[in-house]
């Protein structure tokens, strides 16, 4: 009996363009959840569970924000603070992943993209489920503080990458309209030819 052939976009790490990055990304995403669940079930040592879970969440936050997002989907974000006014704003950066011959950029790997977005949205959902379970089981309320911290870190990354993705889609739409022989190009060409003709 023959195995079905794997296709682009299937959830198999073997199809990834960056399998090591993907495995570390998934490892960090899963490890904080597993350690919290196993720690709260098998031990009542809150301090140990709190410290290790926070360290795993911090490693996940850093790795996702600075490495996995850039390598798997070509997105990056950071927060800049204006020292004069004290205002902060988010800065979004995206690589051209269209794979077009003009840009020379590599195309987006469908498997990497699917793993990334699935894991990005699944982890905050799991923390919400754990918060509900914690409230229903009436566990010691201090355990809920760890879940709140986890939700803040995971939702921040989720919102930032969602905005970054929308920004990259908008900028690629604008650049394709400007440079691809579209209506904007013909309008600009017609305007300049009229100005310089006479």
Q: Your description of this structure?
A:
The protein is mainly alpha-helical. The chain has helices at residues 19-42, 46-73, 110-136, 141-179, 183-197, and strands at 75-81, 88-94. A two-stranded antiparallel sheet has the order 1-2. A hairpin with a 6-residue loop joins β1 and β2 (88-94). It is globular and about 50 Å long. It starts with 18 loop residues before the first helix and ends with a helix.
For the structure shown, list the relevant keywords.
single chain; 198 residues; mainly alpha; two-stranded antiparallel sheet; 5 helices; 2 strands; 67% helix; disordered C terminus
Précis, in short:
The protein has helices at 19-42, 46-73, 110-136, 141-179, 183-197, and strands at 75-81, 88-94. By secondary structure, the protein is mainly alpha-helical.
Average pLDDT, all residues: 80
| Helix-strand string | HHEEHHH
Rg over C-alpha atoms, rounded to the nearest angstrom:
22 Å
- Largest sheet geometry: 2 strands, antiparallel
* Percent of sequence in beta strands: 5-15%
- Give the helix tally: 5
Largest beta sheet: strand ordering: 1-2
Instruction: Give the total of beta strands.
Output: 2
Shape: globular
Which ranges are low-confidence, i.e. pLDDT below 50, for 5 or more consecutive residues?
173-179, 186-198
Helix content: 55-70%
Oligomer: single chain
**Beginning-to-end CA distance, first to last residue:** 75 Å
Structural class of the secondary structure composition? mainly alpha
């Amino acid at each position: 009996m023959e195995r079905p052939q794997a296709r682009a976009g299937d959830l198999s790490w073997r199809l990834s363009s960056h399998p090591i990055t993907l495995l570390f990304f998934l490892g960090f995403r899963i490890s904080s959840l597993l350690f919290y669940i196993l720690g709260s079930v098998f031990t009542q040592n809150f301090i140990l569970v709190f410290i290790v879970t926070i360290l795993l969440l911090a490693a996940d936050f850093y790795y996702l924000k600075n490495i996995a997002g850039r390598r798997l989907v070509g997105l990056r974000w950071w927060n800049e603070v204006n020292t004069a006014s004290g205002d902060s704003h988010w800065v979004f950066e995206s690589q051209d992943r269209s794979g077009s011959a003009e840009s020379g950029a590599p195309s987006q790997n469908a498997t990497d993209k699917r793993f990334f977005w699935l894991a990005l949205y699944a982890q905050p959902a799991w923390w919400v489920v754990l918060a509900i379970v914690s409230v229903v089981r009436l566990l010691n309320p201090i355990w809920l503080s760890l879940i709140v911290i986890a939700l803040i870190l995971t939702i921040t990354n989720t919102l930032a990458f969602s905005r970054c993705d929308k920004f990259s889609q908008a900028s690629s739409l604008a650049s394709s309209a400007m440079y691809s022989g579209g209506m904007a190009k013909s309008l600009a060409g017609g305007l300049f030819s009229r100005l310089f003709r006479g």
